[in-house]
Amino acid sequence: MIERRLINFYTSRLFTFLVFFLVIFIFNAFKEQQGKSILPVALAIVLYGVINFVYYRIKKLREKIVPILVLDAIFISLIVFFTGGVKSNFHILYLILIVFAGFYVETIHLYFLATVSVICFMLTVALTFFIHSNQFGLSSFYSISYPVAVYFVAIYAIALIITRINKRAKKLKYELIKKEKEIEKVTRLKNKIVDTITSGIITTDENLKINYINPQGENFLKKIYPDKKILGINLKELFPVHDFVDRLDFLDRYVVEIKDRLFGVSIVKLFSDNKFNGLLVVFQDLTEIKKMEKKAQFKDKMSELGELSASFAHEFRNSLASIKGAIQLLKEGKEMDTELIQVVENEINRLSNEINDFLRFARKDYQSPEYSYILPLIREIIEDFKTRLDKSIRFEYVEEIGEKTKVFFESVRLKKVFFNLLMNALKALEQAEEKKIVVRLYEKRQYIIFEVEDSGVGIKDIDKSKIFEPYYSGFSKGIGIGLALSKTFIDEMDGKIDFDSEEGKGSIFRVYLLKEGENGR
C-alpha cells in the first residue's frame, strides 16, 4: 500500500511538471529570452530527472517525501531565475507545488514547504535584482516588491485552503470508513442470520437464474441433486413455479414433492423501480416433519384407543355386576326366575352393543352431532336404567320439554354420557341411608338440561377440582374414565357439564345441550 502511494507520488509530480513545461513551450512563453533560456532550462530538467531517479533508488530516502518537495522548490527557483526572475512565467509552479504537496504531507510539513517556497522565491528575485541592478535601477526594486508580496500571500493562502480541504477530506474519509465498517458489520450480521436460518433461501435474477442460495438451502438441495451446481441454473429446474410469475406477486406456502422429499415453498416477486427484478424463494424440507406428524397421529390414535378401551372396560364391568347380581339372586331364589333371566339377557345385549360401539369408536365410525328429537333417546335410557333398580331405591323422572324439541347431539356418545351419570348416582347410594334418584329434563335459555340428582355420599371438597380428570374416581372400585370421557363427548357436542355436591348429602350433575331455535345454535 505504501509502495503504491510512493509510485503515485513520483509519477504524478513528474507528469505535472512535464505537462506544464510542454504547455509553456507550445505557447512561446519565453518570448525574447527563449533562445537564451531554453538550454539552461533543458539542462535543469535533465539534471532534476537524474536527481529524482537516484533519490527514488535509495530505499531509505524513497519514503521521505518532504525533502524531495524541498528539492522541487529549489528546482522551481532555478527555472524562475533562468527565465527572467520576477518576469518569469514559471512563478505559478510554486502554487502548483503547494497544491500537489497538500495531498501527500501533513499540515505542519505543508506550511514548512510554503515557507521554503516563499524564501526561495524571494532569494531568486533578490539575486536577479542584484545581477541586473544596472538595468532595473533602485526604483525598480519597489516595483518588484508587489509581485513578491502577492506570491507570499498566495502561497500561504493556498496552503491554508489546502489544509482546510484536507481536514474536510479526512473527516469525510473517516466518516466514509466508519459507514463502510457499519455496512460491513450489518452485512456480516445479515449473512450470519441468513446463514443460520433453518429455512432455505434462494434469490434469482429477472430471468429466474439463481444468483444466491444460503447454506441451509444448499444442504436441503444436495440431498436431491448431489452432483448439480445450484448457482446459475434456472429455478424451474428445482421447483415447479409454473405460470406464477405471470399471474401472482406472492405465492403462499405450498407443498411440493421432489424425488420422494416434501418441501414447503413460498415465493415472492422482487421489484426495482416497478420493474420485475427476480424472485425470493423460501423453502423448508418437510419430509421429517411429515413423518413426525404421522407418528404423532398414530400415537394419538393409540392413546384414544386406550381411553376407549378403558371406557369399554368401565361399561363391561357395570354389565357384569348386573349379571352377577342376577345370578346370585337366582341361586338364592329370592326373585322370579323369568325377571332375572330377562335382566341377564338385557345385560348381554347391552354388552354386545358396547362391543359394537367400541369398534365404531376405534374406526371413527360415528356420526357428527346434529339437531334431532331427544325424548325418544332419554326415555329409552330411563327404561333401561329402571331395570337395574331394586325396591329400596326411590326413582323419579320429571320431563318438562315438548315432544318436538330438537337438540344438538350424537346419540351413541350421548347415551354413554347419560347412562354413566345414572350409574354413578346408583353407586353413590350404596352407603346412603335414604336412597333416592331424581332425573329432570327441562329448558333454560338456549339449553335443554339433563339433570341427575342423588341422595348419596356426595363429593369431598378436595376432590371436586379433579372430578373430570382421567383415571380419577371417587369410588373404590372405579376406573376413573367415565366422567372424563363424558366431558370430552359433551364438549364435542358444543355443550357443557357441571355439578353441585355436598359431602354426606348427595350430588347433582347437569348436562347442557343446545336446543334448536332463535336462541339456540
TrEMBL record:
SMART domains documented for this protein: HATPase_c, HisKA, PAS
Record gene name: pilS
Reactions this protein catalyses: ATP + protein L-histidine = ADP + protein N-phospho-L-histidine
Segments forming a coiled coil: 162-189
Organism this protein belongs to: Thermotomaculum hydrothermale
Keyword Transcription regulation included in the entry's annotation: no
EC number per UniProt: 2.7.13.3
GO molecular function: ATP binding; phosphorelay sensor kinase activity
Matches recorded under PANTHER family: PEROXIDE STRESS-ACTIVATED HISTIDINE KINASE MAK3 (PTHR43065:SF10), SENSOR HISTIDINE KINASE (PTHR43065)
Ranges of residues in domain Histidine kinase: 311-517
Pfam families: 6TM_PilS (PF25323), HATPase_c (PF02518), HisKA (PF00512)
Membrane-traversing stretches: 12-31, 37-58, 65-82, 88-105, 110-132, 144-163
UniProtKB keywords: ATP-binding, Coiled coil, Kinase, Membrane, Nucleotide-binding, Phosphoprotein, Transferase, Transmembrane, Transmembrane helix, Two-component regulatory system
PROSITE patterns: HIS_KIN
Protein name: histidine kinase
UniProt cross-references to InterPro entries, sorted A to Z: HATPase_C_sf, HATPase_dom, His_kinase_dom, HisK_dim/P_dom, HisK_dim/P_sf, PAS, PAS-like_dom_sf, Sig_transdc_His_kin-like_C
